[in-house]
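Troubleshooting log. The previous run stalled partway through. Resubmitting the same two chains, unchanged.
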Amino acid sequence: MTFDLRRILESKRALRRNLASRPVAEKLAMLDALRDRARDPSSGQGEGIFDRG
Amino acid sequence: MESDGIIPRYAVGGAVGATFYLEPVATLDVDIFVAFRQEPGQFLISPQPIFDYLAARGGVREGEYMIVAGWPVQFLPPTSLLVEEALAKAVTVDIDGMPARVFTAEHLAAIALETGRGKHKARLLQFIETGAIQADVFQTILARHDLVECWQEFERTFLREPP
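Second attempt completed without errors. Output:
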């Protein structure tokens, strides 16, 4: 099995661009979820926040 | 607070400010930059009027922070001429019908360069990679605040393709 690093990096950039282009209110809600998860990683809060759209 | 005369002007900066332009990145607090009003005869500026105002509306003080809607919020004075300019030129963004003032993307990127810690360098790279900043506006800010050499060093370190 081989990995195409160029494609992997490009897909990551595409994901980031997609997230950056979301409405501000949605991104701020993501911040809430990220902060909850950072404070308590075991809680599982914030799971699935990147699944929308 | 601004319309009630508690502070002359505010704007959101830091990681939360960057989220207005970039993908969200985990952060534990909110940085709000404030043009503090200096009281006559006082040499030190104080966030106390802000704390009093928010405490009367349910905010809870924890050290240098006010907890607002579950978020620790820190109110900061401009720490450099660049931040002063960022505060003066901040833009109003609509969040589901609620206006909020935030630093421009170019000022946030320049502040990240000026601050220069690891996470700020990463943030600056995000601004560049996502095309969130206008290069000519950014370059003008760098020139105005004596950051051109700093930018050239950043370019050499992070933006040159390896040989």
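Takeaways: The interface with chain B takes residues 13, 15-17, 19-20, 24-25, 27-28, 30-32, 34-35, 37-39 of chain A (CB under 8 Å). The radius of gyration of chain A is 14 Å.
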